[in-house]
Amino acid sequence: MPSLAKNTTATVMPTMLYQDAPAAIAWLCSVFGFEKHVVYPGENGMIAHAELTFGHGMIMLGSAREEGYGKLVTTPAKLNGATTQSAYIIVTDADALYARVTAAGAEIVCALNTTDYGSREFTCRDPEGHLWSFGTYDPWEVKPAG
Question: Which of 21, 40, 64, 103 is the most buried (most CB within 10 A)?
Fold first, then answer.
């Protein structure tokens, strides 16, 4: 079957909602190192849609609301802290990012460690409870089996 993926920078972009999207954008940029690609403000200080980049990757986010897409997904706070997905972000220096994340007071879920396959990685929650894993393992550098 031919691929339907567009030949572009990144074809998979996690999306999430935040109760306080403006604060989340500021935190994700200052602590994790994301950069604003575009931010579309909504009514009453809400964010209608935002795109943040990290290297060749991108996430999309917006303010939590009860209509449209907001009826289909929710925030960790509305699930008593549970999540149904998380993002893995490839970094060059997990130790440096871990120091920055812990200094910012993020909840560390899995401490910085070295895996059996050589990745240096950790998992944390952002201020609204979304899970983020960061590591040096790059699956694009692994030769596929077969």
Answer: 21
For residues 117 and 128, give the distance between their C-alpha atoms in angstroms, rounded to a whole number: 31
Report the distance separating Cα 90 and Cα 93, nearest Å.
9
- The answer to whether residue 25 sits within a structural domain is yes
Distance CA 75, CA 88 (A): 18
- C-alpha atoms less than 13 angstroms from C-alpha of 24 in its C-beta half-sphere: 27
Q: What is the pLDDT of residues 88-138, one digit of tens each?
A: 999 999 999 999 999 999 999 999 999 999 999 999 999 999 999 999 999
Give the separation between CA 37 and CA 78, rounded to whole angstroms.
28
What's the pLDDT score for residue 97? 98
Domain count, the chain: 1
Q: Determine the distance from the C-alpha atom of residue 92 to the mean position of all C-alpha atoms in its chain, rounded to a whole number.
A: 16
Provide the edge-to-edge strand list for the sheet that holds 87-90.
Answer: 87-90, 131-135, 120-125, 107-114
- CATH assignment of the domain containing 61: 3.10.180.10
**pLDDT of 143 higher than 80:** no
What global pTM score does this model have?
A: 0.91
Range of the domain at 112: 15-75+83-141
